[in-house]
Amino acid sequence: MSATADLPLWAALPVALLLLLGAGLTLAGSIGLIRLRDFYARVHSPTLGTTMGVSSILLGSIIYFSVTGSRLVLHEILIAIFMGVTTPVTLMLLARAALYRDRREGRDDVPPPGTHGAP
Amino acid sequence: MRRFLPYPLAALALLLTWLLLTGLSPATLLLGVVLAWLGTWLLRVMDPPRLRLRRFRVVLDLMWVVAAEIARSNFAVARIVLAPRPRTLSSGFVRIPLEMRDPIGLAALACIITATPGTVWVEYDSADGTMLLHVLDLIDETEWAGIIKNRYERRLMEVLA
């Protein structure tokens, strides 16, 4: 890759740090899927990768391609927006499905439906 | 104006998306304007509820608060996950009464809360206007109602007329 040689140090440092931060947070989120105990706790951990994990990696990508391509590259912003809008919907659906099943099985460690009892 | 451009915010968002993907040049700008205009006319068939944003400064304020909170809780949840000896977590559900009834505001609040690591919006009861929140590290139940209401709900209600 000739492009990596063109990258000056002042740009290479933040790019590397942002990539490490993003990858580290995403890894922590994935480890959480194993280490956390019940389903409702595990729902929380993928959000590490989809919020700051992906933002850091995309920011690194913006800096890298803007410096080496000598023009501002911003379409990574779209990736962040679409991730930010779609993953919460998936997580909410998963949590609701789990709650629905737990209620049907009559488990007593989940809260009952609202006071008016709409299913 | 309203008849020719029914959803100005959606048209602007479509145009910006198009320009980010294709790059800015006179030809792509022209095609993007046509596509955004056609796209919002298609949107009219679905007739979504109209979004009116007020107080642009509060919108920016809200985005800043959300970004700061997401960054802070990223490290909080990472610390919980990576703790060498996993401590017994007091994760649990909290039911929080909301004043907001606007569906767009509720959808935005649900996405904000779920995108923040450590909190997940689980359900909303439209009959009594309460939401069910699941918190990973639940220390004080009553504190959460105040956090949700003061930090997010108040600002969202200000923004949405």
Question: Top keywords for this entry?
Answer:
heterodimer; A: 119 residues; mainly alpha; 73% helix; B: mainly alpha; 2 domains
Detailed description of the structure:
The complex is a heterodimer of chains A (119) and B (161). Chain A has 119 residues and is mostly helical. Chain A has one domain. Chain A contains five helices and no strands. In chain A, helix 4 runs antiparallel to helix 5 (76-104). Chain B has helices at 8-22, 26-46, 56-82, 103-115, 141-159; strands at 92-97, 119-125, 130-135. The longest helix of chain B has 27 residues, at 56-82. Chain B has two domains: 8-46, no CATH class; 56-159, no CATH class. The mean pLDDT of chain B is 84. In chain B, 59% of the residues lie in helices and 12% in strands. Chain B has 161 residues and is mainly alpha-helical. Classes of the chains: A mainly alpha (119), B mainly alpha (161). The interface between A and B is large, with 41 and 36 residues.
User: Which radius of gyration of chain A do the C-alpha atoms yield?
Assistant: 20 Å
How many runs of DSSP E, i.e. beta strands of chain A?
0
**What is the element string of chain A, with H for helices and E for strands?**
HHHHH
Q: In DSSP terms, counting alpha (H) and pi (I) runs of 4 or more, how many helices of chain B?
A: 5
Number of helices of chain A: 5
Tell me the structural class of chain A: mainly alpha
Report the end-to-end length of chain A measured between terminal Cα atoms: 58 Å
Rounded mean pLDDT score of chain B: 84
What class do helices, strands and sheet pairing of chain B give? mainly alpha
Please trace the helix and strand order of chain B, writing H or E for each element. HHHEHEEH
Biggest interface: A-B, 41 and 36 residues
For the secondary structure, the number of strands of chain B is 3
Helicity range of the residues of chain B? Answer: 55-70%
| Poorly predicted sequence stretches spanning 5 or more consecutive residues of chain B | none
Transmembrane segments (chain A): 12-34, 46-65, 77-99
Protein name (chain A): Monovalent cation/H(+) antiporter subunit G
Pfam families (chain A): PhaG_MnhG_YufB (PF03334)
Keywords (chain A): Membrane, Transmembrane, Transmembrane helix
